[in-house]
Give the backbone structure.
Amino acid sequence: MLKFKDLPKEEKPRERLILYGKENLSNEELLMIILKNGTNKYSVKELAFQILSKCGDIRNLKNLTLNKLTKIEGIGQVKAIELLAIVELAKRIYTPINETDIINCTTPTMIIHYFNSLFQDKYQEEFYVIYLDNKKKYLEKKRLFIGSINTSIAHPREIFKNAYLLSASFIICIHNHPSGDPTPSKEDIQITKNLYQLGTIHAIYLIDHIIIGKNNYYSFYEDQQILNNN
């Protein structure tokens, strides 16, 4: 097999990108550019091949974690971190909404329009809190919890601590159900009740708690069993 270092200069990925454009490079060649070099045991071409073999489909690269990447022989922590950073940057580039353009987000459909992309291709629950000022204008979002939602994980202390730091007057909670069914669990209902009651005490009001399913959602605000209009 011809070694990478023995390839003619014009056949190496960087030179091919200059000559033919990025669109005409293979997935393997693009990965070779990102990886930069190989190891004593593996050439950069072989490392790129191993990563693609692990993915199966290049689109699965976004699902590889630091732990999974470093288990690939020849991929150390530095290379794994660089790959993860590039994947995350690409995701942010193609996120359809620029958060600096967000002004108001006070209805479930508007919230989902802005933030639904946060939950694409997620295989475990992620809990976000959206913080708004006293005019219900967007301040910031924070992912506070990962994993099955329960009162020990989704602790109100963290939610309200950030609200105070941001001088927020309203909060919106949003999390996903990877099963695709957005029906609230007993834990979801209890946490929503707790946050609503504590928010009333602290004058940091819970506007809504939205659960994202597969092409559907559940809104506590729309259901109006717990939340009142603020």
Observations:
- The radius of gyration is 23 Å.
- Residues 10 and 16 are 6 Å apart (CA to CA).
